[in-house]
User: Fold this.
Amino acid sequence: MHGIRALLLDFGATLDGTSHWLDRFVEHYRHCGLDLHRDELDPAFSFATAEGYRRTAEMRRVGYRDLIATLASIQLNYLAERGAAPLRAALASLDARELTRLARAVADDFAAKSSRALTESREILARVADRTRLGVVSNFYGNLEVVLAEAGILPLVGAAVDSSAVGFFKPDPRIFALAVKRLEVEPQEAVMVGDSWEKDCLAALRAGLHALWLHPNGNPSRLGAEVGSQMAGNVADDPPGVKVETIKALSELELVIQ
Assistant:
């Protein structure tokens, strides 16, 4: 990519690993002894995410591990009340203290795995920071800067745009406009990197930025294009005929950003 002066990155499933948080919660619940499936957790995950966004004021100073524990606690309470019958039965035997312990165990597992990914991401960003301005744009809970500081990434970025803090969420184009304004570049001089085709790639294109799709598993996309690139314009309202390059790992940024 030529003429790029700023690199914007998503946080979840981009900087802290390449698996969606929903899949990771399923993995860690199972590891901690609660057998469930993705479709069983999905409504609880969505509910906890929305509830976390509503709790911005109390989340502002919360670190990564405690954020995950809070979300897990909300999920477990949802599942105990409204989950599938086998899950309700399994959780009925646990009192409030035991549910809290389970949430903390899940958070410990989740955060330990994320820590390794965040360390690798910090090293990658440190290597490209002298070639481009860096920013993080994430649908988050009001504590993005706290989490980035914990990971040692905050000193590397010129803009950390947290949806709950600024009041609008991806795919709203205002979140990208704010990021490029803070980095003092034009939209066409910035590229957004993230795992979501809709919220990161297409949303960035609609806002006038470039996009780079982090697609680690190498499977063809829902639009049927070969991995390696993707073409927007296949869905109503997509920017027509815009090629989106695909990477499988953040380490490829060093090859893309020249």
